[in-house]
Design brief:
130 residues; mainly beta; 4-stranded antiparallel sheet; 8 strands; 0% helix; 38% strand; globular; TRAPPC14; TRAPP14_N; Trafficking protein particle complex subunit 14
Length: 130
């Protein structure tokens, strides 16, 4: 979403599949450099002709910064069925604006670093979401 000219993303983390408490250690949003920049159709095929301008060079690995606040401090503990929202701001390199109405699409991946006391031999787990 865009608010007052700032590009923001909200990432909701929900502990829905665990009965024990989870410790959220880190949350990041990164550009998915392994994904196709063309939209995928419901059947899994890639649409080859579209009217969206696919620009990717402006979004680097550090473009999404988590907005730090008291409510978003890490690590964060999540009990069963608890959720936590994280706010990110997109920082783009200065790109000259043109007068086109074409969109800006970048496939993203969310990386969640977490742990639980039920897995004592595992320091942390990284889970990736597209």
């Amino acid at each position: 979403m865009t608010v007052s000219g700032k590009h923001l993303a909200v990432l909701k983390v929900l502990n829905e599949s665990s009965q024990e408490e989870l410790s959220i250690r880190d949350v990041r949003i990164l550009p998915n450099l392994n994904a196709s920049y063309l939209p995928m159709m419901p059947d899994g095929s890639v649409l080859l002709v579209d009217n969206v301008c696919h620009q990717s060079g402006e979004v680097g690995m550090a473009s999404f910064c988590r907005v730090d606040s008291r409510a978003c401090r890490l690590p964060s503990m999540l009990g069963a069925l608890e959720e936590h929202d994280f706010l990110f701001q997109l920082h783009l390199n200065d790109v000259p604006q043109d007068d086109s109405n074409e969109g800006f699409e970048v496939p993203l991946v969310a990386v969640l670093q977490w742990s639980t006391t039920k897995m004592p031999f595992t320091n942390c787990i990284y889970t990736h979401y597209r």
